[in-house]
Design brief:
By secondary structure, the chain is an alpha/beta fold. The chain has 2 domains: 3-67 and 154-240, P-loop containing nucleotide triphosphate hydrolases (Rossmann fold), CATH 3.40.50.300; 85-153, no CATH class. 33% of the residues lie in helices and 27% in strands. It is built from 8 helices and 9 strands. The strands form 2 sheets. It has a 6-stranded mixed β-sheet, sandwiched between helices. A 3-stranded antiparallel β-sheet has the order 2-1-4, with helices on one face. The longest helix has 16 residues, at 167-182. It is globular.
Amino acid sequence: MMNGQAFLQVENVSFGYGKQYVLKDVSLSMYSGEYTVLIGPNGSGKSTLIKLILGLLQQQDGQIQIQRSRVGYVAQQANRGLADFPATVREVVASGSYGQIGLLRWMGSKHWQGVERALDQVGLTEFASRKLSQLSGGQQQRVYIARALMSNPQLLILDEPTVGIDVQAKEQFYQLLKQLHQQGLSILLVSHDLDEVISDVDRVLCLNQSIYFYGSTQEFLREQKELLPNLFGVSTIRSIL
């Protein structure tokens, strides 16, 4: 459930390259305990908005207010590049503490206990000693959620995390996000799988350079027949897939 004051505020933000805008006059707010799904066609500026929120890019207009130390991030296709790295699942999750303790400092028992808690949260305790490369794509993505949880985030941002994983793994992944949300974690999910998460989320954000819709799930379901043709050229959620 949403409560309290907004901990993320994006106000009239624009970003572009040269004279070509990628995002124009975007505003949104997120509250504690909120689960928002961000949808839009390819090239609509979704990943750019995420990078702006994370501070990886600097907006040209507007302002963003957020405590970035309380944000966990799972990047698009996060398993690429690290999947063949000779590290165990436990070691990969532990690397999520480096932002707090420093890369060259030893982890104490408190941090290792945090690793075990994070592994338990994502259901991977029994895989802790395995090499990351021995896990399936869906399991690897859960490892990266566990790593993100090590920073004790208030908000978890995920950029199309289920790309390239099978249907069953995808269902398990979204069930995990639902459980984390029920435990009080705020989530901002970029996804094309709207029909699979629509019953779990609080709000829907439709983006195509500018915001086409930003409101409750119930409002979106009432208005989707008018919204989706303009956004995707389709008339129902399932047609997006």
